[in-house]
Structure formats: C-alpha cells, structure tokens
C-alpha cells in the first residue's frame, strides 16, 4: 500500500496538484469504488458510493473501465452545477487512483469559449472514437440515456439550470414519455438504434415556468455503440436571440432565392409565349401559302402536263415535306399550349363518327400506297364528351403512327365498344410492335421517340405525348398494349 501511496504522491508532485485542491477515489480495474478521501459537501451533490460503479458518480466514466493506459486526464469536467474539475486516472495495478482537481475559478474565466468549442464537437457524428464521452464532458448539458424503447434515465449530475426548471424529484425517476417535459423532442421520433455513431439536432424551443420565467432549450439525439442518448442544453437569452436572428436571416435568403426563381420562371413563360406566337403566325403562314400554291398548280392540267416525271417527283416531294413540317408545327404549337395550360378544350357531346370524319383525306393516299386495309367499327349513336378539333388530332396522331409502323399488306382497325359499363376506343395495327421496356415511356413528354417507319417515313417524336395531354384534358385515359412483330393497340378508356 505504501508503494501505491508513494506512486500517487509522485504523480501529484509532477503534475503540480496542490493537496488542498483535490479529492481522491480508489477503484479496482473494473471501476468499482473501494474508498474515498478528501470529499466534502462542496465537492458535489452526488457522492460516489463505496461498492458502486464510478459511472454512477458521473457519466464521463462510461466506457473507461477496465483501464488500459497508465494515465488518463479528463479536463474541465462539471462534476456538479457550477463546479469544474480536472479528472486524473492513474493505473496502479490492480487498483486505479481517480483524482479530482479543483478548476472552477480557472474554467469560469474561459467558459464561454470552451462552451462553443464543445458544442461544435457535439455536432460531429463520427469525428471522435468515443463521442458519448466527449458529449458528457461538455458544459451545462442535461444527459439522458435510453434504458428501453421510449424510456429514458436521467444521468447524474444534473446541470444547475435543471434544478431551477424542474422539481427536485424529477432527477430521480425514469421518463416514460419525454415529450411531456420537452414536447419539441418529437423531432427525434424517427431516430432508430443501430451500429456506429450518429447525431441530430433540434430547433430552439422555449419553456415558461411559474417561478423562473422563460427558458430556451436545444436538444441533440446521439447514437453510439447501440445506445441512444438525449442531451439537452439551456441557451442564454442572448444566445437564443442570436440563433433566432440567424434563422430569420436564413429564411430571408431563402425567400430571396424563391423570388429570383419565380422571376426567372416568369421570363421563361414570356419566352415560351413569344415562341408560340412565332410558331403560330410567322412560321405557319409561309408553309400554308406554299402548300396552297402547290395544290393550285397540281389541279391545273396544263401545268401538270408540262412537267417531266423527274420535275413532278421533286414538286411532290416539296409538297409532302411542307405538309409534314406544317403538321410538326401544329403539334409543337398544341404541345406548348397544353404545357402552359393555355389550350382550353371546348367540350361538346358529339358522336365519335363525326370526329372520325375529320380525319384528313391524305391518310387515304398513304394507306393506298402501302396497301394497308383500314377497318372502322363505330356503333351507331356512340357519343362522347369531347372537343372535336382536339380529339380528332389524337385520332390523327394515332392513325398516322399506325400507318408509319405497319408494313405493306397489313391491317389497321379502329373500334369503339362498350362492355360492363366501360367504353373504349381502340386503334390497332399489325405492325412492328413496341418492346416492353419502351411502352411505359411512350407518353412521357421528355422522352422523344423518333423512329423511321417501315418505309423510311419520318415523324416528330412528340405526337404521343400530345395525345396523352389531350386525352387527359378530357378526363380520359390512354395506354399501349403491344408485342414485337405482332402489332400494337392504343386504347383510350372513356370514363
């Protein structure tokens, strides 16, 4: 025993620890208290008890035993409210000397800086090997450990503010529902136990007590080594005000960013409106004039008769390309109007047959050129609520695609029917079909499906997205059913 005391005296001497300013605890290697020396009531409200684990005296000792290093120093630990000590652990196998050196006067001189430093450390999730020990070494925190799901045990000692805010008996029982005392802790309700370390912070909240007034708080949830802890800190009024001011500044910056985004969106809408105007007037008009002029010339026998076969072929090509580009511009114009919500459907109760009759005569020529048979079955009196102009564009797009992807000698059917109260319009072909992985993306506006037809026919790649938008404007649904090399069905369901 004398050798152990000599070793302790030597350590105190080399560290410059004054005898009158320290208390000692003697434990075994596992941290069980064996004896005390130098303890008075001003040392702490919670005295270590002989035979109990040292971690009952202060949670800073959690995980430190059994000791492996010969010396360990824990600086500036608040052993009880307003009282700070350096804790020295000296391994003198098989015993451990724990020395509590008085540091309150010194700590009070630099406490604000130390507080900020420790709080920054608290927010680091994985930067330290033992984050829980680091957390409980901070100043002025109320610490609680989860003992079972949603049940937390307060860890001693309590910070001084806790005795002012809560009745003394609160420190001695388990919390079955912490939100009763701290309702803002609901922000941690999704946090789950798990391996490794993690942390999360709450916002600031204020509690008003009858005898002490307002108190501002912030909390942290910490997970370490399968254990969960809550650490609650009281904020000084100036500190809470700084936090609130910073939040207000951040909110102001967010509002400014939203305002700038809104301004940019308005400019983009203006650009889109200008684009629609250009397409609808400046671009369409020349094509309409060219097509009309060519139609007039083709109807004049004297002009047609004066052309060689090659010249006639070139003019026919120009005529078809102009009609194709005009169709493209019409689709693009309607797509843009639908996207901006500026195209309003003029819904009428009309027969489907009347809409089918709006199908351009040009399709008859294309069907004949590819020797494709078209079968149309529309029950007499089959009526729908539709905008005839818009809905005819849907049929035109679907029919145009069917002709494009159906080989010579194929068949296209257009059928309307009603079964079990459900009415459908189906346009089916015996064409090349569509792979399964592409069917779900057919109607997406940002997915362009530009593909040449069976005889090299060109398309815009945006027709089906327009169809979907127009069908949905009517409150109906459209989907695709297809098998590769077996054909495709475009199905419109009428509600």
Protein model, in words:
- This protein starts with a helix and ends with a strand.
- By secondary structure, the protein is of the alpha+beta class.
- The radius of gyration is 41 Å and the shape is elongated.
- Strands 6, 7, 8, 9, 10 and 11 form a 6-stranded antiparallel β-sheet that branches. Strands 2-1-5-4-3 form a 5-stranded antiparallel β-sheet, with helices on one face.
- It has 4 domains: 1-102, Beta-Lactamase, CATH 3.30.450; 112-235; 238-337; 344-494, Histidine kinase-like ATPase, C-terminal domain (Heat Shock Protein 90, 2-Layer Sandwich).
- β1 and β2 (33-37) form a beta hairpin.
- Helix content is 38%, strand content 26%.
- The relative contact order is 0.06.
List keywords for this structure.
single chain, 495 residues, alpha+beta, 5-stranded antiparallel β-sheet, 38% helix
- Fourth CATH level, the homologous superfamily of the largest domain: Histidine kinase-like ATPase, C-terminal domain
Instruction: State the shape.
Output: elongated
Count up the domains.
4
- Helix proportion of residues, in percent? 25-40%
The assigned CATH architecture of the largest domain is 2-Layer Sandwich
Average pLDDT works out at: 75
Secondary-structure element order, as H and E? HEEEEEHHEEHEEEEHHHEHHEEHEEHHEE
What CATH calls the topology of the largest domain is Heat Shock Protein 90
What can be said about the biggest beta sheet? 6 strands, antiparallel
Number of helices: 12
Fraction in beta strands:
25-35%
- CATH class category name of the largest domain: Alpha Beta
- Terminal CA distance reads 94 Å
**Which stretches are poorly predicted, pLDDT < 50 over at least 5 residues?**
41-45, 119-138, 168-173
Measured on Cα atoms, how large is the radius of gyration?
41 Å
Number of DSSP-assigned strands: 18
The structural class is alpha+beta
